[in-house]
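Following up on my earlier thread - several people asked me to post the actual chain instead of describing it. Fair enough. Here it is, all 350 residues.
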Amino acid sequence: MIIGITHGDINGIGYEVILKTLLENHIFEFCTPVIYGSPKVASYYRKTLNLENLTLSTINNVNEAVGKKAYIINCSNDEIKVELGHSTEMAGVASFAALEAATRDLAAGKLDAIVTAPINKKNIQSAQFSFPGHTEYLEQTFINTGKALMLLVSNTIRVAVVTGHIPIAKVPAAITQELIVEKLRVLNQSLKEDFGITRPRIAVLGLNPHSGDNGVIGTEEQDVIIPALKRCADRGIVCVGPLSADGLFGSGSFRNYDAILAMYHDQGLAPFKTLAMEEGVNFTAGLPVIRTSPAHGTAYEIAGQNIASESSFRHALFLAYDIYKNRRIYREAIANPLKKQDVVQSGDAE
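Reply from S.P.:
Thanks for posting it. Predicted structure:
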């Protein structure tokens, strides 16, 4: 399995968590990692962080990546410069160059998955990238119709969001029955295909405090969310709600569900990161390709200090591999179900 790794913002902790992860030899037992970035910047961080035991082989094309070792493809010019802890235009250009190159190889089938290191959502903006984040960029690149889904994953909890990177003032108007139905459809299918859950059970949060208290604190639950849940239930999706976010997370009853669908970004991500920051992974569900990312940002304030934890990035790499395996199993299971059923029935008869 070949996994592309985009270096993200060169002035943050991206290279630190990437390099620390690749120091673990067992990584090479299941994948060949290829960094899309800058050999010059990688060398700088190897020296600065005293991680020179890691060998990175520079290649010109991902087709040259063979064997159990780490590779790097140069996506930047020689003038690239690291300015630790600072947002710079050069860092934004380098972030997009790596993402664009990896995405191109992913679309061509040369990569089995990508893991993206954190970007700065402001300095990456350009004529080529005018999106609030990776999710929206990949959605436009790989989906003609439908919606991608931001899904935060850990060993104990999975949280998806109806609305992602939009201002909080625009959230109520953005939440429609159609959008909730589409997000639940994608989430339900992802739980089956990507996580191997036969009949997923999904908790859906309300928008307002106490889920509106029957219209006393807001009517979105009655007018939008409940009708959407009924439509999904009619399609065979097991979804429960709308539930109060504070009660669900505070009581620990989120553990009774395979995933939670929150209405907006912080409603879902704040409790998720409180519960699972170190092992949390951001997975873009609903794409025909596999993309994961650590659940943290650029962390400028600790860049270059050799104190960043690589745990979330490591989990992102592992999850990409797990989803790759689960999708293969799922495709095999549905390839010819009638034939498989005949075999089972014949065996039972004997």
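Residues 340-350 have pLDDT under 50 and may be disordered. That should answer part of your original question.
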